[in-house]
């Protein structure tokens, strides 16, 4: 990631309203060349709406998007041939073969003769579909269509790739192949923005993540930063002798304990005390008050962090992407 060069994408205070619905609500972020960024959010979070505006297929209600130094609203034509867009579902034509389909897009990009044929062959090879060259595209499986979509997106050798839920509905093998393609493209220096509502899908491919909810970015940063924030919140399993309800009541009456859940032999709770020293003091107090047998701390993983962020159990921090 090159932090010193100007960002490849700069989004400022972006809003998209549908009637009174804020599908995208005051979103700002930058993407640097070579970053692989995951856009994660629940259904309806605003991911597709945001990506469609980045792909110059929709216009913001307010705010600005600059891509490769050009304004996406004023000069979409300067941007379109330098970005690749892969929607979550794309229509395919009947009576068209894989090779003809790619050839059509290669022509649209102005590629001619040998260069065009070589480009089509190379992209079929890269995406693993040379054997499908003469197959009709409306007869392809979901995974095969997805590979074709990837090949189509790459025809113009775009610098920025925007993929909306590309791995949805793929079987495990196709997912692995897809991850490898993203890895290869990242190694070629492409900047890649991928959306999904499945965090584990993105976490293996992306260096950086943007979490969206209700049209807003609720958190962003590198995976490491996000994991650190996540693991700053510790869930503690506490085993005690006697009635667990006494433990639950004790925790409820203290500052800094959340998500208190009774268990058969104790309780679990999330401690948000701001230092290990404070936590240690608190646990000593607890041992003096009740017959405690065991504490087991459990650091949270990214998936749990995301759920915590969505449920408001982690405090908002400034976005870093
Ligand atoms: N053309 C439209 N007209 C009206 N409302 C829309 C339109 N497009 C999207 N929306 C609404 O905007 C909100 C954001 O939708 P969007 O498709 O961007 O979410 P998403 O995060 O991509 O969801 P999913 O993961 O389900 O694809 C939703 O409430 C959706 O119903």
UniProtKB/TrEMBL annotation:
<dbReference type="GO" id="GO:0016887">
    <property type="term" value="F:ATP hydrolysis activity"/>
</dbReference>
<keyword id="KW-0813">Transport</keyword>
<dbReference type="InterPro" id="IPR027417">
    <property type="entry name" value="P-loop_NTPase"/>
</dbReference>
<feature type="domain" description="ABC transporter">
    <location>
        <begin position="9"/>
        <end position="239"/>
    </location>
</feature>
<keyword id="KW-0547">Nucleotide-binding</keyword>
<protein>
    <submittedName>
        <fullName>Abc transporter</fullName>
    </submittedName>
</protein>
<dbReference type="InterPro" id="IPR003439">
    <property type="entry name" value="ABC_transporter-like_ATP-bd"/>
</dbReference>
<dbReference type="GO" id="GO:0005524">
    <property type="term" value="F:ATP binding"/>
</dbReference>
<dbReference type="Pfam" id="PF00005">
    <property type="entry name" value="ABC_tran"/>
</dbReference>
<dbReference type="InterPro" id="IPR017871">
    <property type="entry name" value="ABC_transporter-like_CS"/>
</dbReference>
<dbReference type="InterPro" id="IPR003593">
    <property type="entry name" value="AAA+_ATPase"/>
</dbReference>
<comment type="similarity">
    <text>Belongs to the ABC transporter superfamily.</text>
</comment>
<keyword id="KW-0067">ATP-binding</keyword>
